[in-house]
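Sequence, please.
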């Protein structure tokens, strides 16, 4: 065994870590975009994508992870959700209202397939139940 072999192994691991960090960063960005889309399209879930994005950024970029947790739109939401504190009743009301407005519009105006309509309604019911079951954050 030469003295260069451990060095080669370490540099390989370092390159591998760079690849993994890049992989997590790219997927963190994709999940962040999907979470953003989910705000406007009720069939796309917002919270799981934002949580996945935060997890990917945690493994790839301290700066992006910190940005997510300190973001004015969803930073507190993510912190409260991951700490099990829940979400405010205003956020629940807004989310459920927007969900049902867009689902009802989709079912009666945009989608002509009965199966797709039933799937949309099932998703809306599931998301509504999930949101209602979440703890309600007491606002100060």
């Amino acid at each position: 065994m030469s003295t260069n072999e451990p060095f080669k192994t370490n540099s390989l691991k370092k390159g591998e870590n760079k690849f993994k960090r890049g992989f997590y960063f790219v997927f963190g960005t994709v999940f962040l975009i999907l979470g953003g889309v989910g705000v406007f399209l009720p069939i796309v879930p917002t919270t799981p994508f934002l949580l996945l994005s935060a997890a990917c950024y945690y493994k790839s970029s301290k700066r992006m992870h910190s940005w997510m947790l300190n973001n004015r739109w969803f930073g507190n939401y993510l912190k409260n959700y991951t700490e099990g504190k829940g979400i405010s009743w205003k956020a629940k009301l807004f989310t459920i209202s927007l969900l049902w407005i867009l689902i009802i519009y989709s079912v009666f105006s945009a989608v002509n397939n009965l199966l797709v309509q039933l799937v949309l309604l099932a998703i809306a019911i599931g998301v509504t139940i999930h949101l209602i079951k979440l703890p309600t954050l007491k606002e100060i």
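Residues 87-140 form one domain.
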